[in-house]
From TrEMBL:
Its EC number is 2.7.2.3. Pathway: Carbohydrate degradation; glycolysis; pyruvate from D-glyceraldehyde 3-phosphate: step 2/5. GO terms for molecular function: ADP binding; ATP binding; metal ion binding; phosphoglycerate kinase activity. Gene3D superfamilies: Phosphoglycerate kinase, N-terminal domain. InterPro entries: Phosphoglycerate_kinase (IPR001576), Phosphoglycerate_kinase_CS (IPR015911), Phosphoglycerate_kinase_N (IPR015824), Phosphoglycerate_kinase_sf (IPR036043). Substrate binds at residues 27-29, 65-68. Its cofactor is Mg(2+). GO terms for biological process: gluconeogenesis; glycolytic process. This is Phosphoglycerate kinase. SUPFAM superfamilies: Phosphoglycerate kinase. It comes from Euglena gracilis. The lineage of its organism: Eukaryota, Discoba, Euglenozoa, Euglenida, Spirocuta. It catalyses: (2R)-3-phosphoglycerate + ATP = (2R)-3-phospho-glyceroyl phosphate + ADP.
């Protein structure tokens, strides 16, 4: 497991913060709807690190991405301004905002010890997530110019080789981990080093092209894999079922170019069979003609009619998924909701999976990850879950055995 294999990293506690400009990369990519924050779990989780900088007399500069802006440049729905305002409430002090993350020197210069500045969404520049390292470094140099010290608390983004994650510490020649990063890595080093078997993985959500590529290696570790969310439709397509108007990803961008993930899903199903891993797929769905919170149409089987989109697993699937042997499982790893649980009518599937996990919490170590995890926590089952992680893709990559670039780049403890 990389966290432990990499050895301890320089910590925020090792830094002399007083009067220094401290640039902290956080993952404030929180779920939003109509400019409102649906779940601030990721923000609250980073507060100890932010408060440490403030209370140590540092000048705090916070940077994050938000969403996946399609075009480069400003897009109101992905602005971090509402996040900066909410952070002011959480910290109980004024938070200033730099409307252009690459032109923030004037705002930085105004900071006095204990002040807080939030930079606008890093992904408004293509450099942040560019495949071209030089382009990433160009941005990293600018960001690094604002600060004396770099701290990463963005566990949820640690699997991304982005300008702000790997470029800035490379340019500055220094990078320390914040408290959230350390807490997550410490937890996963123990829990995933040798996960107690049988292991059940529950995989859903919307980032299908990213996450499907992690499943092949996970087959080595898991005994049962329960699939929901949009991930399910790529698998059903591979089985020749109809997926209607559902969000069904068919291609993924990789370092070697585009790959066909329907084909990959088919291969995964055969491989799972060979390796004795049971894969569970939906046998019915809750659907709608449009992406709206309306009374669902329930399909009679796994096929989705052409004029409908599936937005949640159906009642028969709920029953099937509840029959998974959670009583026997010793470890359960859950990433991504079973449906669009932001919408009232499409949350039952996600809640249905949370219930058996909570019921078997005495015998099974249950780890839930992702930007939406806490709303699963709000289902009322969370107090019984073992660990709620701020990282979805990041925790899956750890489970798969990958080294997270955003962690590897941090300075080793002397
Ligand atoms: N059937 C579906 N169709 C479209 N989107 C879905 C579906 N099921 C789940 N989602 C969406 O997946 C999103 C979360 O996906 P993802 O980011 O991959 O998971 P996580 O943040 O838990 O790692 C939620 O916003 C949810 O609305
Ligand atoms: O929300 C995130 O990941 P997650 O949805 O897998 O938990 C992170 O902020 C990373 O975002 P990205 O997957 O758009 O790079
Ligand atoms: Mg997410």
């Amino acid at each position: 497991m990389p966290g432990s294999a990499l050895g301890p990293k320089l910590s925020i506690d090792d830094l002399d913060i007083k009067d220094k400009n401290v640039l902290v990369r956080v993952d404030f990519n929180v779920p939003m709807k109509d400019g409102k924050i649906l779940d601030d779990f990721r923000m609250r989780s980073a507060l100890p690190t932010l408060e440490k900088v403030i209370n140590s007399g540092g000048k705090l500069i916070i940077m994050s991405h938000m969403g996946r802006p399609a075009e480069t440049g400003y897009e109101a729905k992905y602005s971090l301004k509402p996040i900066a305002d909410h952070l002011g409430t959480l910290l109980g002090k004024p938070v200033t905002f730099a409307a252009d993350c690459m032109d923030a020197a004037a705002e930085v210069a105004k900071l006095t010890p204990g002040d807080v500045l939030v930079l606008e969404n890093l992904r408004f520049y293509p450099h942040e997530g560019s495949k071209d390292k030089d382009q990433r470094l160009e941005m990293a140099k600018k960001l690094a110019s604002y600060a004396d010290l770099y701290v990463s608390d963005a566990f949820g983004t640690a699997h991304r080789d982005a300008a702000s994650m790997t470029g800035v510490p490379e340019v500055m020649g220094q990078g320390a981990s914040g408290y959230l990063m350390k807490k997550e890595i410490d937890y996963f080093s123990k829990a995933l080093k040798e996960p107690e078997k049988p292991v059940v993985a529950i995989v859903g959500g919307a980032k299908v092209s990213d996450k499907i590529q992690l499943l092949e290696n996970m087959l080595k570790t898991v005994n049962q894999m329960v699939i929901g969310g949009a991930m399910a439709y790529t698998f059903l397509k591979a089985q020749g079922k109809s997926t209607g108007k559902s969000k069904c990803e068919t291609e993924a961008e990789t370092k070697k170019g585009k790959i066909d993930i329907v084909e990959l899903a088919g291969k995964l199903l055969s491989k799972a069979k060979e390796q004795g891993v049971e894969i569970y797929l939906p046998v019915d769905h809750r659907c709608s003609a449009e992406f709206k919170d309306v009374e669902p149409v329930i399909t009679s089987d796994e096929n989705i009619p052409d004029d409908l989109m599936a937005l949640d697993i159906g009642p028969k699937t709920e029953e099937l998924y509840c029959s998974v042997d959670f009583a026997k499982a010793k470890t359960a790893i859950w990433n991504g909701p079973m449906g669009v649980f932001e919408l009232e009518h499409f949350k039952p599937g996600t809640w249905a999976v949370a219930r058996p996990l909570a019921d078997h919490s005495d015998s099974c170590c249950s780890i839930v990850g992702g930007g939406d995890s806490e709303r699963r926590e709000k289902s009322g089952y969370a107090p019984k879950l073992s660990h709620i992680s701020t990282g979805g893709g990041a925790s899956l990559e750890l489970l798969e055995g990958k080294v997270l670039p955003g962690l590897a780049i941090l300075t080793d403890k002397p």
